[in-house]
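for the writeup, i need someone to sanity check this before i put it in the appendix. the sequnce is what the collaborator sent (i think, or maybe the updated version? ugh). structure was predicted straight from it, no edits. if anything looks off just tell me and ill rerun, i have time this weekend
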Amino acid sequence: ALYALRANFLLQNGCILAAIQDCDEAIRISPSAARPYKVRGHARMKLCKWEDAALDLAKANQIDYDEDVYITLKKLQTEKVPKAVEKRKKQEQQSQIN
């Protein structure tokens, strides 16, 4: 729980990568806790890692449902993730051409 609390503090203070590292450690210690997935999902959103953020928020909601997380997740899934997938596919096609 301490790593998740510190991760939240770090995220609020702009230390995104450090917050993700603390979340990773919190998940390693207690994979059934929702909070580190929620915090890591929000951190990944700040890095525009939409697909990873959606996975984390979905896992957080699977463990412990939160209406705010659900709303954020649905917005990601309908707005950000499809665009990210499309962009990744285009990049993969370009790399196959070159």
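DSSP finds five helices and no strands in the chain. The longest helix spans residues 67-97.
thx in advance!!
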